[in-house]
Design brief:
This protein is about 35% helix and about 30% strand. The chain has about 140 residues and is of the alpha+beta class. It has one domain (about 5-135): 2-Layer Sandwich (Yope Regulator, Chain: A). Strands 1-2-3-4-6-5 form a six-stranded antiparallel β-sheet. A hairpin with a 2-residue loop joins strand 1 and strand 2. Helix 2 (about 70-80) runs antiparallel to helix 4 (about 125-135).
């Protein structure tokens, strides 16, 4: 049997390989990666924290929240709409968290790419509502 199949997947190593191969703008700090995104006029930062075969990806809205209650209400509404992952508020910042469990070497980078892409799509889809909530407004997110 091939010994590589007995070794657990290294999420940090796979994430670095994926980011280098894709030409993404990132900075590695141990098992943490910082990425910058720009899509459809939206700009934000994401942080990927790897531990063993698990990668958690946090997309951070750049605006600080003015009205905590309205931001929390929006997070709750959006959590009812997303298929996986979740929105929450941390230190005045709206965050979307998703992750990837890497169980096989052969599809590890694909799983990581799908998790990053899903979070990016969610952030872009709800950008207007997220920005409004940061400003203390609550928009319909349908």
């Amino acid at each position: 049997m091939d010994p590589r199949f007995e070794v657990p997947v290294d999420a940090a190593g796979e994430m670095e390989a994926l980011l280098e191969r894709s030409g993404a703008d990132f900075r590695r700090e141990g098992d943490r990666f910082r990425l910058r995104f720009a899509a459809g006029g939206c700009r934000w930062q994401a942080v990927c924290q790897c531990r063993g075969d698990l990668a958690m990806i946090y997309h951070l809205h750049p605006a600080k929240v003015e009205d905590t209650e309205k931001a929390l209400e929006l997070c709750s509404r959006l959590n009812a709409r997303v298929i996986r992952g979740s929105f929450f508020l941390r230190e005045g910042t709206i965050v979307f968290r998703d992750g990837a469990e890497l169980t096989e070497h052969w599809d590890a980078q694909d799983r990581l790419a799908r998790a990053v892409e899903y979070g990016t799509a969610v952030f872009v889809r709800f950008w207007e509502a997220l920005s409004a909530a940061a400003d203390g407004l609550l928009l319909d997110c349908e």
